[in-house]
Amino acid sequence: MKTQGLMSRYSNILVALVVVLCVFSASAQTAQQLFETGNSQYAQNNYEEAIKNYEQVLDAGYESAEVYYNLANANYKLNRIAPSVYNYEKALALKPNDKEIKNNLQFAQNMTVDAITPLPENTFKKWWNQLLNLFTLDGWALVTVVLIVLFTLSFLVYYFGSKTVLKRSFFTIAFVSLGLGLLSLTLAFQARSNEKNKRFAVVFSPEAEIKNAPNMGSEEVFVLHEGTKVRVIEEQGDWQLIRLADGQEGWIPKTYIKLL
Known about the structure:
Elements (H helix, E strand, L loop, with lengths): L1 H42 L3 H13 L5 H13 L3 H14 L4 H11 L13 H10 L4 H24 L3 H34 L1 E5 L3 E5 L8 E6 L3 E8 L2 E5 L5 E5 L3 E3 L1
Helix pairs in contact: 1-2, 2-3, 3-4, 4-5, 7-8
Keywords: Membrane, Signal, TPR repeat, Transmembrane, Transmembrane helix
Pfam family, one: SH3_3
Protein name: Tetratricopeptide repeat protein
């Protein structure tokens, strides 16, 4: 009796797993079909329908640089500035080194009204940021693991090796991989800190008055228009404190922007 009960329990678990896998497979297939339908409609210049299909893919919980990129392209064709910039930014976050995404993002940003000149960076900071942007947080974590494994293997060969030339070569490899691994680990922590502390958003309101305090009766400090990217510093009720690339700060209603 106990054996039959145990077998029945395992059978139920197996059936449940099969059902879950079937549902997941069907859902993934549906998302792929929606994506392909969106591509077909885009090719036929039916951008509104293409947008609906791409958004359904995202609503189903599937996101990729390709979906965001195509969604941005469709909005760009309809001259919708804010959705174009927003979705190109989302695509670039998933593929930070994609030149095509960067170029199209630049085209979309050229449609924005606000001309904001970023604060100048010193040479070291500029190089550091360029190095940091080579990979995402996951990318730097993977590079760190690979380099630490390489260091470990090289050190073992050096330690147990018998030939002098071999020991020297692997000692050099171990030393270099350790140094690069520590640098990669530092960059991974920096990328993690950036993701945690830096929240960015895109202005979706056609025109937004930025205030010096989180209320409508406060003084206007400047005006922004749709498509402008801002950094969110603080939140207070229905307002968010934002900072521009040129250092200007002010409060904006949270309904006027969309977090990236």
